[in-house]
Amino acid sequence: MKMIISNNCNLLYYLLMLISVNEVFPIRTYTKDDLNNLRDEVKEMFYHAYDSYLKYAYPYDELRPISCDGMDTYGSYSLTLIDALDTLAIMGNHTEFQRVVDILSAKTDFDANINVSVFETNIRIIGGLLSAHLLSNIAGINLEPGWPCNGPLLRLAEDVAKRLIVAFDTKTGMPYGTVNLRHGVPKDETPVTCTAGIGTFIVEFGTLSRLTGDPIYEEVAMNALYALFNHQSPLGLFGNHIDTNTGRWTAQDAGIGSGVDSYFEYLVKGSILLQRPELMEMFHTSRKAIDKYLKKDDWYMWVSMTKGHVTLPVFQSLEAYWPGVLSLIGETSNAMRTLHNYHQVWQQYGFTPEFYYITQNEAGAGKESYPLRPELIESIMYLYRATGDPFLLQAGEDILRSIKHSAKTPCGYATIKDVRDHRKEDRMESFFLSETTKYLYLLFDVDNFIHNQGEHGTIINTPNGECVINAGGYIFNTEAHPIDPSALHCCHTIPNQNFDFKTFETNRDFYQGTLIKKYKKGTSDDLSSLENITITLESGVASVEELSIDNMTEKVAENMSDTLKNGSESILLAENRVFIAQVMLERFRKENRYPKNEAWQTNYELLSCKAQTFLQRLSIWGEFFNK
Ligand SMILES: *[C@@H]1O[C@H](CO)[C@@H](O)[C@H](O)[C@H]1NC(C)=O
Ligand SMILES: *[C@@H]1O[C@H](CO)[C@@H](O)[C@H](O)[C@H]1NC(C)=O
Ligand SMILES: *[C@@H]1O[C@H](CO)[C@@H](O)[C@H](O)[C@H]1NC(C)=O
Ligand SMILES: *[C@@H]1O[C@H](CO)[C@@H](O)[C@H](O)[C@H]1NC(C)=O
Ligand SMILES: *[C@@H]1O[C@H](CO)[C@@H](O)[C@H](O)[C@H]1NC(C)=O
Ligand SMILES: *[C@@H]1O[C@H](CO)[C@@H](O)[C@H](O)[C@H]1NC(C)=O
């Protein structure tokens, strides 16, 4: 509400207005029963949509909630089934979780002649598989010996990653946007990729490397992040699209939303998950430019990356993730002010439109839809955990009410085609089950295991020593798939991590928490079978090192070891070109194109966040116990 107060009379009116507004809309107080009821409403919402997907749409990618059938959208890989899987674990449905894991485990790989988005396949498929893999023991299902360093879902995730990694084989190391799951980068594929399509791999690829012991994924993702960072404008801003071969920006609008968003998100989340302070330094550096050029009255505009002037005074629905990211670095008051702006837009329409013109207070023409996006509820969930402010419960309830009221159909929930009249459209994206319902559920389910702040964990024995899992501090990928950070310490020692144990020892209580209960193996989860398991590392790539990428003809490939030729490490591209991932990695290492700041790599203090207690301690437990 904007108002110019010119005299006392108006001031009195203003005060009366405030009082009456507060009387009409007081902030509700929520009892535990209220919260449980809201949680159950969300659960019902999830099952209405999930059961409809199974009944009408599976094995297609998505449900069409008005025509009550299914369609393929992103890759003909039963996307919604995989994307929704870990939500089942979070809602405690272990039988259905096991049933779906069994279906997926029967699959040997993702080989198919299909062109897919590298970005979407990574966040939805690899992210979904990795998360379900790591939640398998909490969901009480049968574990393969060697878990969490082994398992059918982990193998599938790695298979997909091997099919995507060919996209990074560019001059700059920034990936193409599309690959064919069987044949690699399609002929004539454009080298232009959006910023988020380059900077949104470190959470999934880092997890893969830490679990499998193969450094390639993490290194390739880091290389792409450094590449992006080194292409920032003199103002410190990032554009929207860049040519991955020349490094030339082809779309120069800088913002925090569409085409860019999860790049910033992954600098923060990757930093915490993988204990890499340099990513947080990169975020803080970019953040300064964002605040200087984009931020106006707690809104974030779009500006020219070279000149800094506003090009588009628009709030995008996708940008609503930003307050949640700020809460992860402890900036709750900044985050709350921005969230209030975004919530006002929700109140105005009952949904957030894709584009909202900040100065005109109206939905953007042609951008009036709401495809059941999660970003606002995501920020609300994070901020509620950081502040406990009941306003956030009310904001969450507003979202639940709108979706139930206007998006529900007899067989699912539909995209809102126009937030101004709530007309529906025949689409339910998979992120409704993966993200929107999950964040709503977690907002109201205050005792969920995901909210564990380190009060308890499970100790398992692995060949690498004792390690702690399920100790909280879960990092959600940008598709809301939670990753257990402590599990990443169970499988392999990661080279080049010079963790300062002196700092750790002096802050031991802080990191360790005070209420840790050690659940020895053989309590609720029978992990005794994990003892004495040895993990066999894949090897046999040493001979590749001397080859230069320019010599990668099929002839050279003939001399590769059988493992390389046959494994999905090598892909036969069109025109008989052969791609070998290890060769690409060696090239990145040798070229070492992007300068790295050594001091940034060890500033571990950056990684603690007092505002989010669930993040501050346990991510380095594995280090502690493995020492
Ligand atoms: C688990 O999900 C299946 C499929 O939706 C459903 O039939 C079953 O009732 C659910 N079980 C529980 C405990 O919620
Ligand atoms: C993949 O894209 C390429 C290039 O656009 C095209 O020629 C090819 O037919 C596509 N493949 C499939 C399976 O759609
Ligand atoms: C592990 O190996 C040791 C020594 O070989 C053996 O005594 C122990 O019983 C084994 N534990 C399990 C669970 O197999
Ligand atoms: C490999 O590439 C280099 C330079 O690109 C060239 O000089 C050399 O002859 C090539 N070797 C083979 C075996 O093709
Ligand atoms: C492959 O190996 C053979 C025998 O070791 C060698 O004579 C030949 O030059 C190699 N080919 C290439 C392309 O390196
Ligand atoms: C590799 O594939 C070829 C045929 O494609 C097969 O003859 C050979 O046995 C395979 N080698 C291994 C190690 O699997």
From TrEMBL:
Active site: 120 (proton donor), 261, 354 (proton donor), 375
Native source organism of the sequence: Sitophilus oryzae
UniProt KW Nucleotide-binding keyword: no
Gene Ontology annotations for the cellular component aspect, listed alphabetically: endoplasmic reticulum quality control compartment; membrane
Gene Ontology molecular-function annotations: calcium ion binding; mannosyl-oligosaccharide 1,2-alpha-mannosidase activity
Annotated binding of Ca(2+), by residue: 478
Keywords: Calcium, Endoplasmic reticulum, Glycoprotein, Glycosidase, Hydrolase, Metal-binding, Signal
Protein name, per record: alpha-1,2-Mannosidase
PANTHER family on file: ER DEGRADATION-ENHANCING ALPHA-MANNOSIDASE-LIKE PROTEIN 2
